[in-house]
Amino acid sequence: MSDKPLAAAIDGWHTLGEQPHLIGTRCCGCGTYFFPKQTHYCKNPDCDSNEFEEVELSRTGTVWSYTNACYKPPAPFVAAEPFEPYTIAAVQLEKEQMTVLGQVVAGVSTADLKVGMPMELVLETLHEAEDDIKVTWKWKPVA
Amino acid sequence: MSNEIAILGAGMHPWGKWGRNFVEYGVAAAREALADAGVPWRDVRFVSGGATVRCGYPGYVAGATFAQALGWQGAEVNTSYAACASGSQALAAARNKILAGECEVALVIGADTTPKGFLAPAGGYRPEDPDWVRFYLGITNPTYFALYARRRMDLYGDTQADFAKVKVKNAAAGSKNPRARYTKCFTEEDVAASAMVADPLRLMDICATSDGGAALIVSSVDYAKRIGKGDAPRIAAISTVTPSFASGVVEMPDIATDSAAAEGIEAQSFRAALPIKAYEEAGIGPEDVDVAEVYDLSTALELDWIEDLRLCERGDAAKLLRGGDTRIGGRIPVNPSGGLACFGEAVPAQALAQVCELTWQLRGQSGERQVEGARVGITANQGLFGHGSSVIIKR
User: Fold this and answer.
1) Is the pLDDT of residue B357 over 90?
2) Best A70, A100, A125, A130 residue to mutate vs chain B (most B CBs within 10 Å)
3) pLDDT bracket for residue B119 (50, 70, 90)
4) Which domains does chain B have, with CATH numbers?
5) How far is CA B355 from the centre of its chain?
């Protein structure tokens, strides 16, 4: 790994640091959470609010399901050469009552996961760019 | 029943991967449907097309494109785009026109030419587009199918061998279907030997994209009776409802589900909601269904659909499969056409192809694939952006 600086793969979607959180919004009218952020209209059919507050989502949840990617996805995905398969999990957040997809940290395979298993959010490299290393959120089994 | 229309004719161009102009496939399907109906082209007063977004402007105005190809004769046209449910939405438009008394006979038609290789989003840096985001993060279409499949394994005890059994069953049915693209029979060992794509799904668990075309000639029941076809299969219901907030199942191309945190909001399953309106509209229940054509984008997804259609209790679809209940000759045959496993997906034609198959089944014209005594059939499909459909036909 190089000594390039770290940068978020997608700006403003999560906090940086040791205990990262996804950044979403919460409707001021009905309390519905949104990730990615929703700032113009609430999608709850019983709510016509257009006021939202930015919130950090829970950084732990439980596995809804999981899989892996055995083949290199097409662009805009930037794959390392040679391509290394990676694991993917859908994790349910209790307070937000929603499920969020993400890669699982390197070294964890589908054989290590089970529906209902507790997971936490961490940051890990998505790919290395010319000027920096792009990091994104990934799910990691709670030790 | 006053809200029924008759299916006078069905036609399909075989599915394949030829890369020819989609209009050719549609015209071939339309001509077969017209001949099957015994209706002259000039009697068709409404042409309702399912759009294709992959074939340029002629695809966006598919209704007009097919009407022109068959020879302008002054009919009215419509084009519907509803992803995988485009054909059903085009069918619903034709039904409305007929039931409103504005026309007696309509052609409903869809055809597609699919590109080779991965379906990828437009380039650039576009985090406002969920389809771009998920590819950027490494989440492809098989990811979603595999998440649903794996959840079945952990929750209900389904196995990869069960998923392989779906492929074996559908391949056996498709081997007797001259319109299918893949007509080879496979064993569970063949499936197990194919490459892993997205654990637990292998290459042979996942459907391909295909070229193809399908068409229906539909009419008022009065018109059907006047031409001596009063006993033709009828469209008894068309459901094209949207999901209800909050959608609790993560759907392509989204990175997250809706949140069900607000008061009075519960997580909902879109797939399970689709047939509810169809059953209500037809005034029948799952126990009345003799045959089903469902959208098996993956083998495991066929099992989800069987439960969504309430053909068995939630979690029991693999039991049905293992007992042979869902094969031709079983208690409730599913995908006697061979399904997407044998056809591959030709988006604007696929929902119509499902209705074509049920039409032939209900008429008793399916030869070696015949579901004996079939009188009620149901379809189900789901696509992107809240589109999906379920159609019930009966005779």
Assistant:
1) yes
2) A70
3) low
4) 5-117+210-226 (3.40.47.10)
5) 8
